[in-house]
Amino acid sequence: MSGAGVRIGVGTRVMYDGAVHEVTEWLPTVCGTDVVLRGPNSVCRMSVVELVSGTRVRLLIDSSGPESTDQMVPAAVVLSSLPKKRLEEVRERAAHIREVLTGYRSGNSEIAEAGEPRAELEHSRPLCDRYAAKSAELGVDERTIRRWVKAYEENGEAGLVPARFALQNRIGPAVE
After folding, report:
1. Domain ranges across the chain
2. H-helix or E-strand spanning residue 74
3. What is the CATH number of domain 1-70?
């Protein structure tokens, strides 16, 4: 199990000097950020740099981060592998899905575009009505909209990348 992508925050558990400690505070300092670790018999303070790279500290990972053997490729890898035109298409599709789910293409009322939310996609309307409105607008089947929503909810924008473009081998033939 790797430590890649592990969230560190209040509640993160670490092994420090042979005892389990928990991060209880984040403290900004002039030189960076420190954390307070509380253990069964001690309280200590150290920098975040020492926390993640020190030899006396080891993160206790409750859930694994990405592994090289994972079946699912991290979203950043999937999206960065796309040609610019395909990435724009995926982002446009994501905006449509956010509009279905929230009424706003950005997904947030605080950064709404002019004319948002449109009456047929207001969040107060039943979701099935919003699916129907979006399918009519895009000229696709309502099941397609449902499938896109599910993929977006499970994997964000990366879930909207068509499988045939997900990670095509973009390396040319070997040069002999």
Report:
1. 1-70, 75-165
2. none
3. 2.30.30
